[in-house]
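Quick one:
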Amino acid sequence: MDRNGFERMYDFYEDLAADYLRKARQQIPAYETLFQMADCLLDRELSTFAEVLVVGGGGGQEICSIGLDKDWRMTVVDPSEQMCLAAKARAEEAGIAGRCEIRAEAVSDLPDAEVFDAATCILVMHFLSKERQADLLDAISRRLKPGALLVAAHLVARDDPDEHRWMMEFWSDTLVRLGEDPERVAKQIQDLEHEVTMLREDEFLELCEAAGLEYQARISQTLHFTQWALRKAE
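Output:
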């Protein structure tokens, strides 16, 4: 576990940081759609100017795909310096570095007085234990204005163990059909079951409720990747 409480099940500090975007696009069906939906959700909620908290946004996908036609200030918080460097490089290459501040720290490091109009937390939660997910949700909630939207997306377990196992096998077969090496996929799927925390939907929503975040809607679900709109309680 790093000093910010993020569990280093995957090493976002070395090679994976440099190669994260390529691997994510290869292995996550509808990867781009998660960010398109986040953009649409926030566009419905926010005015032309807004302060948006991007949790775990190192790599830069959020700042390069959300609110590009708006005067939104994006504060990216990621404990991995390497991921933050990747985000800065993408922002500079796209000519949008001026719209964002990228901080190599945890959400809990932000001043309590710093509040945001909305937040995103995309493909982060499953890298944390259940306890750390609860801590992160609480830290995000405390930095959102009442009624503010949180767009979250991550891996979620199916309620029925047989369905969950079948879906994991289907995901594996899908990756192979898309061109991934079968042996590598088999190892990745096997490792995944031990290296990430896939809560059931009801378990995750219980953590949200405890953190003062209300369920608005489930926006999308592709295989185990599920996206929600959550709202800070008034």
